[in-house]
Design brief:
5-stranded mixed beta sheet; 52% helix; alpha/beta
């Protein structure tokens, strides 16, 4: 590679690959090979015009001198040998023919040798051009030559494929500057640098392909002259970095979401402990309050606001993917039909609702409650985008994601999915808005009109299930949300209905271990209200000590997942070493200790989610004590190790 080619196309980074170095110097090497092959018969360095002229003059002078010497010497020799004029004339005639024959033979040999060397140089040139043209065509990067006004002179197949054209001729009919550059600022910047500075290196610009879609490319180019008297041309190499930039933006977004999720998980954990105490004490106060309507109204408002706060923390935890899921194989069509039936009134009569549900739809492996939440949030979001009315369309179908799709969307995984699509004819969104729609607390609504957690919740639910969500929207053209749900391995299961039976108490002894003081006292009073004897502990070590002291009396242990000294699972393992199979109920406020919480769920331990109501706590405690009494071991967990 020549020094000029290296200066124009060198990246200056150690990680530049061999393929890119070869591609960047192809044009230089083709030209250098051609000049070397045409240089001369003897593979000498390329002669200049003056050196060729001097060589020709030297050869002509030598030939003229030798000819003159031959004529003078031969004439004198013949005059000496032949005294008879007739004999001299005959010998001079023979001398002339001999001179012509010898000169013709020498000229023939010289010309033949020259033609052979010329033929060899031409074959070497063709072979060299063919070899380097093959490199051009097989390069992974687009390569082109054009005039300074943008008219293409040559392009390789990689550039044709990169820009989605059908043939080289079709692309060469376009203009580099007028048809390919998507941004006027990019075009002016590139032309100024090439025409004034002479070159550009690794400059990222936005181009348009044949379909009009924008792609990000890294462009290196230079202005060059093939011959001194020829017009200058632009030679360039192009790399498509659209997928790389999309992946970088996706990674940045995921990092930001992960940071927000960790913060949300920690906040929700602490809030749930506080809200659990607020809701529980409000219920206890309502039962014991005098018949004062105003006081009871205040207590009811406290309980309602506590439940609203609990709803907000649940949304935060959904975004942070800190929820305890109960996935099952479900019929998505059935969930869509039931949810839309409940939403008809909320959506309003001014919006037409239509469904296109695929028959024989595969069962999706999701938590039905979370799917209902996702569908409700998306439908309500669509309703809010159509204040003057419009059309809401909900569709389902089976779809399979292949490797090609995953190359365009690196965060996707190949496999079978159930596709749930929610489309509206509303106001739509600009790109600047779409870049933030899944962020918590981001909203385009007026203050007080929304929390900004609806789509963040949807995003977290879908991602926690291992699914995908894509959004397409344009201002005044509506929006389309596509939710990809992983397919289950079996048939859809029948939905579980919540039990409405009356809450029953008992006289058994329950060990309650909770590090939050107000939450521990509330749980104690709630269970004592239903007749249980309650033993309390403020941390994991104290829970083990209390259990050892009363191991034969305790019917069930209620353990917070995260506690000082010993965590809930660690405390339970020590308890089981004293008395295996003790019924357990773990309480969680969705700690950021996600691995610990996942371990509890993986072992099939029963979990009650904070904040819980008094009735919910009493119902769960009774359920697991009764399960122990009838010999069901599931509630003690499948693995105590």
């Amino acid at each position: 590679m020549g020094a000029r080619g290296s200066d124009y196309f060198r990246r200056g980074r150690t990680e530049v690959t061999v393929e890119r170095n070869v591609a960047n110097t192809i044009l230089d090497r083709i030209r250098a090979s051609k000049n070397t092959a045409v240089a001369g018969f003897m593979s000498l360095p390329r002669p200049t015009v003056n050196s060729s002229h001097a060589s020709a003059l030297r050869i002509a002078a030598v030939y003229a001198g030798l000819s003159a010497l031959w004529i003078v010497f031969s004439d004198r020799l013949l005059a000496f040998l032949a005294k008879d004029p007739a004999t001299l004339t005959m010998l001079q005639t023979f001398k002339g023919w001999f001179f012509v024959a010898a000169t013709s033979l020498l000229l023939y040999m010289f010309i033949r040798r020259g033609l052979q060397r010329h033929e060899q140089s031409q074959l070497a040139l063709l072979e060299s051009e063919s070899r380097f043209q093959g490199l051009v065509e097989s390069a992974a990067y687009g390569i082109f030559r054009s005039t300074v006004d943008g008219r293409f002179l040559d392009v390789n197949e990689s550039l044709v494929r990169m820009l989605s054209y059908d043939s080289r001729q079709e692309l060469m009919a376009r203009s580099l500057f007028e048809d390919l550059f998507a941004q006027p600022l990019d075009k002016s910047r590139v032309t100024d640098q090439i025409l004034v500075a002479g070159s550009i290196k690794q400059t990222e610009v936005q181009w348009r392909n044949k379909d009009g879609a924008q792609i990000a490319v890294l462009l290196s180019a230079r202005r060059s002259h093939h011959q001194q008297n020829e017009s200058p041309v632009i030679e360039g190499i192009v790399e498509d970095v659209t997928e790389r930039r999309a992946l970088e933006r996706r990674n940045q977004l995921l990092q930001k979401f992960e940071a927000i999720g960790q913060l949300a998980g920690g906040i929700a954990h602490d809030f749930n402990n506080v809200l659990g105490a607020v809701i529980g004490y409000a219920e206890l106060a309502l039962e014991r309050s005098p018949q004062d309507p105003q006081l009871r109204k205040y207590l009811q408002i406290i309980g309602e606001q506590g439940n609203k706060g609990a709803g907000l923390t649940r949304q935060l935890l959904a975004f942070a993917r800190r929820q305890i899921l109960e996935p099952r194989n479900i019929d998505v069509n059935e969930v869509v039909s039931e949810t839309l039936g409940l939403l008809r009134t909320a959506i309003g009569a001014h919006i037409g609702v239509r469904t296109v549900l695929a028959p024989d739809l595969a069962a999706a492996r999701v938590d039905p409650t979370q799917l209902e939440q996702t569908l409700m949030n998306l439908c309500v979001n669509a309703r809010d985008a159509m204040p003057q009315g419009g059309q809401l369309l909900v569709e389902t179908r089976d779809i399979e994601i292949d490797e090609e799709y995953c190359r365009r969307y690196p965060y996707a995984h190949p496999g079978r999915y159930v596709l749930l699509t929610i489309s509206d004819t509303g106001m739509g969104m600009a790109k600047a808005t779409m870049d933030h729609i899944f962020e918590p607390f981001f909203t385009t609504k007026e203050p007080g009109k929304g929390t900004g957690l609806g789509l963040a919740t949807v995003y977290g639910i879908v991602k926690q299930h291992g699914g995908l969500i894509h959004v397409y929207s344009e201002p005044r053209l509506g929006s389309v949300f596509r939710v990809y749900l992983p397919v289950g391995s079996g048939k859809a299961e029948a939905p579980k209905r919540a039990s409405e039976e009356e809450v029953r108490g008992g006289t058994e002894t329950v060990l309650v271990a909770e590090d939050h003081d107000a939450g521990r006292e509330m749980a104690q009073q709630a269970l004592e209200k239903f007749g249980y004897t309650v033993v309390v502990a403020a941390d994991g070590e104290e829970a083990v000590k209390e259990f050892v002291a009363r191991c034969d009396q305790i019917a069930l242990v209620l353990l917070d997942v995260v506690m000082p000294k010993l965590t809930g699972p660690e405390a339970y393992r020590r308890i089981c070493s004293v008395r295996p199979g003790v019924p357990v109920l773990f309480a969680t406020g969705y700690s950021t200790e996600s691995d610990l919480l996942r371990g509890v769920a993986d072992r099939d331990y029963p979990i009650i989610q904070k904040p819980y109501t008094i009735d919910a706590l009493a119902r769960r405690v009774r359920e697991f004590i009764d399960a122990r009494n009838v010999g069901t071991a599931r509630y003690a967990g499948r693995n105590h190790s």
